[in-house]
Amino acid sequence: MTQLEEAQAVQIGGRRRAPAVTPLIDCDVHNQIDAAALKRHLPQRWVEHLQDFGLRAGTSTGFVRPRALACATDTWLPDGGLPGSSRAFMTEQLLDVWGHTYAILNPLNQLGMAHQPAEYCAALESAVNDAVAAEWVEPDPRFYGSICVPFEYPDLAVAEIERLAPNPRFVQVLFNVVTMAPVGNRRYWPIYEAATAHDLPVALHVAGGSGHPMTGCGWPSFYYEDHTGYQQSFLDQVTSLIAEGVFERFPDLKIVLQEGGFTWMLPLMWRLDRSYALLREHLPALERLPSEYCRQHFWFTTQPIEEPERPEYFMQMVDRLAMDARYLFASDYPHWDFDAPDQALPASVPAELRQRIFSANALSLYTRLPAVAT
Predict the structure, then answer these.
(1) Is residue 2 part of a domain?
(2) pTM, 2 dp
(3) What per-residue confidence (pLDDT) applies to 247?
(4) Shortest CA distance to 93 belongs to which of 148, 31, 1?
């Protein structure tokens, strides 16, 4: 931010307000459906089940996350309510402060629900989706929803996609990136078929719940290791989707990689293409170089991105990757490492690319978003 902009900034609710980025589409905002709201949308049998048994823990981590629930201190509600659980508070603290055009909601509930027993899982996902529809997107035209699905139960996930797809305010299907099997596995293909039939991207968001660690070699000791290593699961999932021939079967499938960074994609493409040259006979489903699938089918959110000490290194990597149309702005509100729009990108990013990242790329990807002048 320039000195002039810094001088123009004011304090609102403890957060700096800067001149708005216009238009601004935030592709990773976390709301949270609290227990009371969840119960309003759950069938009574599952309300009783939730009260009696709660949620089954999917993982056990030995590290402590920064701040409670990994959320910024000032995002907790004044009455002690959970961060992201109040539409009015989020609107005041985020959308109104930064002048959001649209915000795509990825409910935090999804991170802990996908590993529940099948029918219970499906009921919870449906309740979250119904709460998002009724209490978030319908009252405020700036909010758009992600369809939370029980992705480990593909038949139930497909049913939920079919139920929500007619609602134009839901713009993508939401997965956790750590799954029971690599996401190229055929067990997940019915979900991709349903998503592409409705022109819905599939988002893979940092999270576990499958019982597997984020790393490929076991559970880390510190949150530092977990946070630094987010890209590990994305590397494996990208490789799986390509190797299994998913994009040959579903040529219109669009995959959004959320909170995994992106600079790793370039050396991954080098390795994929080199291995393909040596082992092509092992991958009979592929008709093109792996790097071609990477460039056609993947998008990346910006938070948290790699931030080299010298800003020019960032643009050198961006230039070599040559995927300018695939970056999507994300604030990751209400997490502790929230990216304010005026601070999210290195100063070396040129104006045209900034405009792409803040809005144009999202409008191209999410075809259900109303057009705005960019």
Answers:
(1) no
(2) 0.92
(3) 99
(4) 31
pLDDT tens for each residue of 66-94: 777 889 999 999 999 999 999 999 999 99
Residue among 39, 41, 40, 63 nearest 51 (CA): 39
On whether residue 7 sits in a domain, the answer given is no
Task: Tell me the average pLDDT of the chain.
Answer: 90
| Percentage, residues of the chain above pLDDT 70 | 92
Cα 346 from chain centroid?
A: 21
Containing structural domain, residue 119:
15-365
Q: What are the structure tokens assigned to 316, written together?
A: 């050198």
CA-based nearest residue to 149, from 186, 86, 204: 204
Mean pLDDT of 191-213: 90
Q: Which of 120, 124, 96 minimizes the C-alpha distance to 109?
A: 124
Burial class (CB in 10 A: 0-12, 13-18, 19+), 75: buried
Give the chain's domain count: 1
pLDDT (0 to 100) of residue 312 = 87
Q: Which long-range contacts (CB under 8 A, 24 or more apart) does 92-97 make?
A: 92/13, 93/13, 93/15, 94/26, 94/29, 94/331, 94/333, 95/140, 95/142, 97/12, 97/13, 97/15, 97/17
Assigned domain for 208 exists: yes
Tell me the residue type at 338: F
DSSP helix, strand, coil percent of the chain (3-state; round to 5): 45, 10, 45
**Bond before 311 cis per omega within 30 degrees:** no
The distance from CA 330 to its chain's CA centroid, rounded to whole angstroms, is 9
CATH number at residue 226: 3.20.20.140
Q: Is the pLDDT of residue 10 over 60?
A: no
Question: Is residue 371 domain-resident?
Answer: no
Q: Kind and range of the H or E element at 265?
A: helix 265-279
